[in-house]
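Quick review question:
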């Protein structure tokens, strides 16, 4: 039996995170929520393809990539990301969050000037919010169709940014809820640049999230991402300090 997880940075595996060049910026965590779910459900194998910066097209592509491998007893968690990301460059799937990323800083390193100019012109002349909304609806309907045709699998859709039926809240509620308010959240990101929290949440909340997911698969209870988590402990007085000191460590 295998646990499959597809999503963005909320769902990146510990192995993926540890392979990042800037891993020293991140808080230590031996097991994230994915590892804990695997253990709690007794899944022998794990395929975790959460990709930093992924958009929903990429997530769906990964899901379908393994369609001939799924077997009865497998668990699949699909984590939809922000609907307004765009997969511009086939070979650089992590660069879809173009509204929050300064592509100009990457000229000569990841992008050519011509590529960056093309993105800027897209933003200026071709952005169509309605099209993004329709595409997101089609993505969700595609997931529903997949679930309907694979009832031998255990499937959970775990939303990152936009609420969907069958789950209360979104993963962003956990991440943002760790701050006292939005002003502190903005200061935190401006100061750290790269979020030092693994999967955008501190250690104890990984265990709480994992317990909720495990309970869903064992009892059918709806996953509620809006309550029971540790909240409001990152403040204007401590947002610069080491984040691991702000929460308990997940038990091994």
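Suggested answer, residue by residue:
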């Amino acid at each position: 039996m295998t646990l499959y997880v597809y999503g963005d940075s909320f769902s990146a595996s510990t192995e993926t995170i540890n392979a990042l060049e800037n891993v020293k910026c991140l808080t230590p965590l031996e097991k994230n929520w994915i590892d804990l779910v695997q253990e709690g459900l007794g899944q022998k194998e794990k395929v975790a393809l959460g990709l930093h910066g992924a958009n929903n097209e990429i997530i769906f592509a990964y899901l379908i990539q393994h369609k001939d491998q799924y077997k009865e007893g497998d668990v699949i968690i699909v984590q939809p990301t922000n609907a307004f990301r765009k997969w511009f460059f086939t070979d650089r799937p992590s660069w879809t969050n173009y509204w929050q990323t300064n592509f100009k800083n990457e000229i000569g390193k990841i992008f050519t000037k011509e590529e960056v100019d093309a993105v800027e012109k897209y933003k200026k002349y071709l952005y169509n919010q309605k099209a993004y909304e329709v595409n997101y609806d089609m993505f969700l309907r595609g997931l529903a169709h997949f679930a309907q045709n694979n009832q031998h699998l255990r499937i959970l859709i775990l939303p990152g940014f936009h609420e969907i039926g069958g789950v209360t809240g979104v993963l962003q509620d956990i991440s943002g809820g760790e701050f006292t308010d939005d002003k502190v959240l903005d200061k935190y990101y401006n100061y750290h640049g790269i979020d030092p929290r693994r999967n955008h949440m501190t250690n104890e909340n990984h265990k709480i999230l994992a317990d909720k997911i495990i309970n869903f698969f064992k009892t059918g209870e709806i996953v509620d991402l809006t309550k029971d988590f540790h909240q409001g402990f990152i403040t204007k007085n401590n947002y610069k300090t080491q984040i691991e000191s702000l929460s308990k460590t997940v038990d091994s």
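Why it works: The chain is about 35% helix and 10% strand. The mean pLDDT is 92.
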